Fold this sequence. Notes:
The protein is an alpha/beta fold. Helices cover 34% and strands 22% of the residues.
Amino acid sequence: MKNPVLQIKNLSVTFPSESGTVNAVRNVSLDIYPGEVLGVVGESGSGKSVLSLSTIGLLPNAARVSGEIFLDGKNLLALSDNEMSKHRGRDIAMVFQDPLSALNPVQTIGHQIAEALLIHQDISYDDAFHRAGELLDEMRIPRPFERVKSYPHEFSGGMRQRVMIALAIANAPKIILADEPSTALDVTVQAQVLELLKKASQLTGAAVVLVTHDMGVVAGLADRIAIMYAGKIVEEGPIEKIFEKPAMPYTIGLLRSIPRVDENEKHRLVSIAGSPPSPVNLPPGCAFAPRCPAYKEICDSKVPDLEAFGAGRSVACLRKDEIAGLVSTGGLYSTEETKGISKSTSDVKLLEVTELSKSFPLLKGSVFRRKIGSVYAVDKISFTLEQGKCLAIVGESGCGKTTTLLEVMNLVAPENGKIVIFGKDVAGISKSERLAIRKDLQIVFQDPFASLDPRLPIGEAIMEPMEVFSVPKSEQQSRMQELLALVGLNPAHANRFPSEFSGGQRQRIAIARALALNPKILILDEPVSALDVSVRAGVLNLLAELQEKLGISYLFVSHDLAVVQHVADYVAVMYLGSIVESGEVSKVFSTPRHPYTKALLSAVPIPDPKVEKSRERIILEGELPSPINPPSGCRFHNRCFITKARGEADQAKCASERPALRLVEGSQVSCHFPLLK
C-alpha cells in the first residue's frame, strides 16, 4: 500500500447561524492515495462540498474548523492564508461546479492559465502563454492556440469546464478536487468532461476527489467511494464491494433509488422516507435513524463510529452485522413501492403536432434594428400523444425541446405546421375554447421554487387555478386537501409557505397545483433534474402512480435518458431542432438506429462498476453546431462516427442531402445509413 498523499483526521466544520450552530462536517477521517479516484457521494447538505473546500482552504471566515489535514506530512489547517496560497493551485487544485463564475470574465482564457503557471513556476509569460495553448490542446479544444485569446463567455459550458480542468492540471498537482464537475452538462458533454478528468489524473499522477450526487458517474470513474450523510462518512471502501454488497441502509437506499437505462422492466423505485435532518438540530444517536427502515431503539443510543467491516471497508452503523441478513432476505426497503408499473392501453390521440416549425429573428443595431438572420429552434417536427401514455422528448441543450413545449402551451397558430389538441386545431379556436383547453393542459416547470409564489401559502397556491376557473369556494378547500394527500404531503401544512419545504416537497406542491383542475395532459419540463437522487425517486413514483389512478398523459422533456427509460412509453430524440429518431422506448433504447441516439445512450452512466468500467463509450467530437448556421445535409454529419468510417461518396451524401424520417425496423429514423442488427 502506498503512503497517502493526503490525510484528513477528525475534521469538523461548523458555521454560526441565527438558528444555532450548523454542524456541516462532523469528525471525518480519510486517507487519499496517489493516482486514485475517490468518489464522495451524498444528498444535498451532507457536507461534501464543505469537506473539499476545507481541504483547499477556501472556507468563509465565519467557519470554525477543528482536526488536521496533512499534505505530505504538513498540517494545512495550521498554515496562514499566505502560506496556504503556495500550495493552492500547485499541490492542490480544484475544478468547480460552475466554470463561468469561477473564471474571470474580463481576462482571456490563455492569460488566466498563464497566470496560474507564473505564480508557481519560474517561467516567462510567453512560455506560459504557449503552455496554455498546449493544455487546451490536451483538453481537446479545437484550434487551441487561437482560442487562448478568447474570453470565457465565448466558450460553451462543456468547453469552459475543460478550461477549468486545464487550469487544475497546469502545475501537475498532487490532488485534484472536482466538485460536481458535470452536474449542469448534457450527457454527451458530461462523458467528454469525465473522460478528460480521467486523462488529467493520468497525465499528472494526481489523486482525484470527485464530489457528486450521481452514483453512475462514481461507478465509472472511482476506485473508492465515501458515502456522506449529515456531515459524517457512513460507509467507505472499494467501489466494487460497496456497490455489490452495501452494508449501510442509507447506501442501500441510494443505490435502489436510481433508474437504470439498461433495465427493460418498469417498476417502482425505492424512495428513502423523509428528508435529511437539519445540521442545526441533529437527532440523538444515528442521524439516519428517523428515515431508516432498519431502525431500532439502539440506534438512538449513540452516534455510530466509522468502524472496519471486512477488508478495506468501513461502516458507521450500530446494526451493520445484521443488515446483510436483512438485505439477503428482502427485509430492507421491501415495500409496495417496488412493484411493477401498469400502463393504459388506450389509443385515443389527445395531442397531434404536424410539421411544427419555430424560428427567432437575429437582429443587429441599437437604434435602427434590422434582421440579419434567423435562429431555427424547431424545424418541421411531428408527433402524437395518446391518452394515458407518456411521450418523452430528449436531446442536448439547445435542440428545441423546451421551445416545442412552449409552442404547444401557447395555444395559438404556430409559425408553420399544425397543432391539434383534443381534436381541435389551435389555429381556429375561439377565446372561450382556448380557455377550456387550458383547463385540461397544465405544465410543471423545472424549478419548483421559481414557479411558486413565495408570498402565498401552498394551500392558496393550489387553489388559485380553481379560483380562476370559478370552482365553488365550498369545493376548493376540500379539493386542495385531497391533492396534498394525493402527492404525499400533509394537508395540515397548507398554511406553510414554499420556503418551509424541501426541493422534492416543492416539486410535489407544483404537481398538486397542476392537477387542481383534473387536466388530461401534464407537460413536464425537466421536473426532476434539480432533485437529489432519493427525492427524485419519490417524484417519479408519484408520477407513475398518478398516471395509473387518473389516466393522465405526460409530455415529458428531459436530458436524463435513465429517467426517460423509467417513465416514458414513447421517445422522440431531437438534434438541432429536428427529430432524428422516434418510437417505443423499449425499441429505441435497446436497438438505437440513429448514430446520435446510440451516442446519447452510450454516454449515460450506469450505476454498476462492473458494467460501467467495461463499456465502450462513444465520445462525440466537437460541440453542438449553432442553430443560426446549421450544417448542410444531415445536421449530425460533422460529428457522426458512422459517416467518418464510410467512403467519400457516402460522406458527400451525408454532407449534401438531408435525410427524411423513415420507418426502420419499428422506429422512425432520419439517417441515410441507419444502424442495423
